[in-house]
Amino acid sequence: MTNKHQSEVHRLEENLQLLKLTCIKEQYRPAADKAARQNWDHLGYLARLVQAEADARHDRSIQRRIRMARFPGIKTMENFDWTWPTKINRPAIQNLFRLGFMKDKANIIILGGVGLGKSHIATALGYSACLEKHSVLFATTIDVINTLSAAQAAHKLKTELKKYVSPELLILDELGYLPIDKQGADLLFQVISQRYEQKSTILTTNRAFKKWPEVFNNDSTLTSAMLDRLLHHAETILIEGKSYRMKDQVQEQ
Questions:
Q1: Are residues 131 and 169 in contact, defined by beta-carbon separation less than 8 angstroms?
Q2: Which residues contact 220 (CB under 8 A, 6 or more apart)?
Q3: Is the N end or the C end of the chain the one with fewer CB atoms within 10 Å?
Q4: Is the pTM of the predicted complex or chain greater than 0.85?
Q5: For residue 253, what pLDDT band results from cuts at 50, 70 and 90?
């Protein structure tokens, strides 16, 4: 390789690094060798390099969205046991994975007892949304309230609220497992209210709607306002049965 050639290669790699075309930088040499063997023309060689860069950026974008979603773990429906619940509308759930509800800015309420896969389904829907390049955030309802309470005390509520209002899909997990005081209920209502008809929310709960006042400090007015915004454009998925985590003990009886 001549000094002139070495200089050109060095300048090429510096420019690729400057433009953050990392995939092209890694692949242009082996691709050039392959192009020579298979008689690609210049346009074909360039097209393959650009496609490889675009694919790499797409993959990085999806992985970044998955990290930002803060899932407790990656879930899909491939290993979901449809036979365990005594009542579950499989076609309705599978239809949700078309993500039409997000286009409609609608909500999903997944209602059922402990250990029936509510969080699994919600997480799998969130993961599917990430794969389709939507912004997603997963959080337990209590964590949201605690975070917003701390932000309010520090006079940073507006900034913190934006984190829960901005994502195209917000997953609020485990509503009803712990009671919520008036301050917490008011803060959660702000999230629901600001997302109403603007963004989609998936909420999992073990409490029937008629028992929600018990969750929200017996504040029937706030509960009605919360339900009004959640259910106006929503699909409710009801799951019945015994906890899957107790499956082995149940089967042994």
A1: no
A2: 213
A3: C
A4: yes
A5: very low
